[in-house]
Amino acid sequence: MAAVTSPETSPQPRVYFQTPAGTTEEPETPVRKQGRVTVKYDRKELRKRLNLEEWIIDQLTDLYDCEEEAIPELEIDVDELLDMPSDVERGARVKDLLVDCFKPTEDFISELLDKIRGMQKLSTPQKK
């Protein structure tokens, strides 16, 4: 039930909401269901990987001198690079991917190799 004050008592009308007589209002607490985690990842590794991927996109945007949406269709698979036995092979793979880039790519490749050194491959952990 709402009560409106009269214009004589207040310069602007105010609306007050009242609980109807005979009802008690208890605050509703939301029922929170527990979710089951089926796969666990190392958050720190995920954060490092996300930061690396954002850095790669920024660098490719600069290398190709365009917006993110206009970067040529190429995929730098970090897990694939981590599987390779040496930095020489990794560098050659990235250089092959960037074959249509007209700007120098050597600095990008060496920085990328520095950044992935010591990273772990993201594999799907086993369910417990």
TrEMBL record:
Q: Where is the composition biased (Polar residues)?
A: 1-12
Q: Which region ranges are annotated with the description Disordered?
A: 1-34
InterPro entries per record: CPI-17 (IPR008025), CPI-17_sf (IPR036658)
> A Pfam family name for this chain?
PP1_inhibitor
Instruction: Provide a GO CC annotation, any one.
Output: cytoplasm
Please give the PANTHER family that the UniProt record associates with this protein.
PROTEIN PHOSPHATASE 1 INHIBITOR POTENTIATED BY PROTEIN KINASE C, PROTEIN PHOSPHATASE 1 REGULATORY SUBUNIT 14B
User: Which GO BP annotation is one of this protein's?
Assistant: innate immune response
Tell whether Phosphoprotein is among the UniProt keywords: yes
Q: Which species does the entry assign this protein to?
A: Perca fluviatilis (European perch)
- One GO MF term attached to the UniProt entry: protein serine/threonine phosphatase inhibitor activity
List UniProt keywords, sorted A-Z: Acetylation, Phosphoprotein, Protein phosphatase inhibitor
Per the similarity annotation, which family is this?
Belongs to the PP1 inhibitor family.
What this protein is called in its record is Protein phosphatase 1 regulatory subunit 14B
- Domain of life of the organism in this record? Eukaryota
